[in-house]
Amino acid sequence: MKRVVHAACPHDCPDACGVLITIEDGRATKIQGDPEHPVTDGFLCAKVAKYLDRVYSPDRVLYPMRRVKAKGPSEASFERISWDEALDEITHRFRRIVAEYGPESILPYSYGGTLGALNGASMDRRFFHRLGASQLERTICSSAGEEGLKSVIGIKLGTEPEQFAHSRYIIAWGSNIHGNNVHLWPFIEEARHKGAKLVVIDPYRTRTAKLADWHLPINPGTDAALALGLMHVIIDENLFDADYVSRYTVGFEDLKARAQQYPPEKVAHWTGISADDIRKLAREYATQRPSVIRVNYGIQRSDRGGMSMRAVTMLPCLIGSWKECGGGLQLSVSGSFGLNRAALEMPELMQKALGRPARIVNMVRLGSALNSLTAPAIQALFVYNSNPAAVCPDHNEVVRGLKRPDLFTVVHEQFFTDTTDYADIVLPATTFFEHKDLQAAYGHYYLQVSNQAMDAVGECRSNVEMFRALAERMGFEDDCFRETVDSMIDRALQSPNPWLKGITRDRLEREHRIRLNFNNQNIEKDGNAAADTAPFLPFAQGNFPTPSGKAEFYSETLKRQGLDPVVAFTPPEESRHGSKAAGFPLELLARKPDNHLNSSFANLPSVRQMEPGIGDLEMHPTDAEARGVRDGDRVRAFNSRGQIVLQARVDSSRIDGSVPPGVVAARLDWARFSPGGTNINVLTSEKLTDMGNAATFYSVCIEVELFRA
Ligand SMILES: Nc1nc2c(c(=O)[nH]1)N[C@H]1C(S)=C(S)[C@@H](COP(=O)(O)OP(=O)(O)OC[C@H]3O[C@@H](n4cnc5c(=O)[nH]c(N)nc54)[C@H](O)[C@@H]3O)O[C@H]1N2
Ligand SMILES: Nc1nc2c(c(=O)[nH]1)N[C@H]1C(S)=C(S)[C@@H](COP(=O)(O)OP(=O)(O)OC[C@H]3O[C@@H](n4cnc5c(=O)[nH]c(N)nc54)[C@H](O)[C@@H]3O)O[C@H]1N2
Ligand code: SF4
Ligand SMILES: [Mo]
Fold it and tell me: Which string of DSSP letters, residue by residue, matches 555-615?
């Protein structure tokens, strides 16, 4: 029997594609994009187009496993056990640890394996809250940018992707659209056919930059200076929207005074972009309308990433482009869904366990947490939806912690990863083909139900079912641990957010995707709303959900936090102008692979072959020559935290190079696939950003030399 099931891709990607899975006699035989999805439009990225290779990979974890040899990467160090044995062992160890050290000595560790609302954060949170485990501060990706964005406009939402087709001037700012957000590209192409210009601001010459009309290779971490320089010109030349500014913003005079301090010549020194180009960009952006900025997370993985994002967010407020269809700015739109997360996660359960909220441990600083946290020290680590032994900064410290023989580590995974190398117990996890979920997005405004297409392979269990079983085994009798998946979806949708009005599970199951109800239309009796397709212009008339109700060029909240209430540029400590560059003159971009997803997919041969040269260190000829390095040479890249041997790729042309002078780039890979058993995160640091306690993957200084074995 053949059937086609509607699902939604849950990987950590803005696009949240609508997916159709063909099932024949219980087996998935085809995956394709859902042609009816208005944004993702029937195509999938290359890696997910090969998803059958992932679901049916011979390397899947199929059964619970127990370690039989010492921790570390070595073959066949696990034996198969039953789920009963696994759950017994985990609960036995947890009970002992709780009795001896208290529940906060247990640390959950999860991030973006699946962004499904339930399997991302629901039963797992209930479990750890009820246990009284330490809380994880999940800031490895986006929180600096979020805080910077919200400090100006109050909420995490922005221009819908469909509107980019109407833009006349598009800036991709720290945004690798072709690699990381490919479903925005057709809208940009449509705009360009109508004459729009695409500008890319990125130190690295990405595929997006190569295809753009204008690429500005900016020095890493200097975006706040560029934004201030643009505002300097826009204010100086009277190109701002005085009416919009006076009605809907606060702090213009403070901003004006600040921008005065950033004339283009000075900004050119910081950014490496000429004063003429800064003036030209400012004039074009302010006058070729509608103009829109697709800023992505690239600019906020930097020491002062929060302030960089704050400065960029001010631009559309200054020129009033929020009024126009095809104007404004998009970083992430996830704040618009407003699902009832509290009902899914039930933080009140911590009260029962501890009588207070549990302590918070930052995920970026996992190495420090495992090696030096006290009162109490971490005794057990429970990893799911994440591969910290690959993705976490300061890899050597992370591995040192994971190797601790006294640390009890459980990893719930689809594959044997760098992290399972250090697990005591490995549990098998389902893929999205094998469980049901509710799927929001961070790059568009459609909500979807992702249906279960097939039975779980082997003895895999979803995160929801695994934590349900663990809670039962721990003896947690609260009703919430017996709640069904459907009831949890219903509960997530029961939220005060007016844009969810009329959106029910029943409708999602029938209609597959529903745009948020922005015009708050009434739903007719049969459950169908008239299609709400009017462009979403959230800030056309102000309505910023900030403390002042206006876009904040001046923020009292930041001032209270001891931060600059306006915005300023300070060079990142680890950068060419920074205080910690001595001895390590090259700025490293420890980048994402275009065809993998962070560390996911790297282990699948059919996907890996799409990412040739993943072990390369890209260098500019000037920097290579100065070190006697030629294309193809093996080089040692190092700083005070670690070293890694990579193959030098030196650009053939100074003008068309992938990296500008002073910048080197390498891609994230699994440690076990790299020659020395370490990956590029041996060079990145635990330092947190100025706002949002996020990671600083793109503020890293290193030195490079020829490798002599
Ligand atoms: N194919 C693929 N898709 C992905 C991912 C993946 O790994 N692979 N990861 C997913 C995840 S988790 C996320 S968060 C999103 C992220 O998507 P993006 O935000 O696009 O993420 P990045 O690739 O980190 O950064 C974007 C660009 O910023 C540039 N950049 C670095 N430093 C600076 C700077 O200081 N200034 C400026 N202007 N640019 C800078 C980088 O060179 C990069 O090309 O993508 C998601 N999609
Ligand atoms: N050097 C460098 N490091 C980086 C970045 C970078 O750009 N450069 N990017 C950073 C960013 S932006 C992010 S978001 C993080 C991402 O870090 P992670 O969220 O850890 O992302 P992945 O590497 O995709 O690993 C997710 C793991 O979850 C597993 N998984 C998938 N679905 C499920 C499920 O349903 N259940 C369970 N139990 N497991 C599942 C996958 O098999 C995979 O091994 O990495 C960060 N690290
Ligand atoms: S990873 Fe992104 S682009 Fe690829 S299928 Fe999933 S949502 Fe779509
Ligand atoms: Mo991310």
Answer: -HHHHHTTS-SS------SSSTTSTT-TT--EEEEEEPPSSSBTTBTTT-HHHHTTSTTTT
